[in-house]
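hey m, so remember when u said the tokens were messed up on ur end? i reran from scratch. heres the input so u can diff it against urs
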Amino acid sequence: MTLQAQPTLSNGRAPLSNSLLIQNVDLDEVCAEITARVVKAIEPMLSDSLKRPKSRDEMAEWLGIGVATLDRMTREGKTPSFLLNRRRVYIPELTIEALTRNKGEKLS
């Protein structure tokens, strides 16, 4: 009886012995199904976050843009905002809707 050394991965671990081989499956369909299940699982957490008003600084950070860019987009009517006790606030859900409606336009 001869024993062969089990191959190892670059991290020094042995590969999984219970490998799963997927054949004749549309990978796009698998990805879409996984995405749908993940979104469904985290949707309750996201919906609360999307409805909570954000300040100018918070909204700019959330969008990954500068405050000056957000101010310009607001002046141009690209992002809806509201005055709340003299403070400008944004509702992320409404902002996303507005930006996706205008997705063909340059944002900044």
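this time it looks ok to me. The first strand starts at residue 54 and ends at 55. if urs says something different then somethings off w ur setup not the seq
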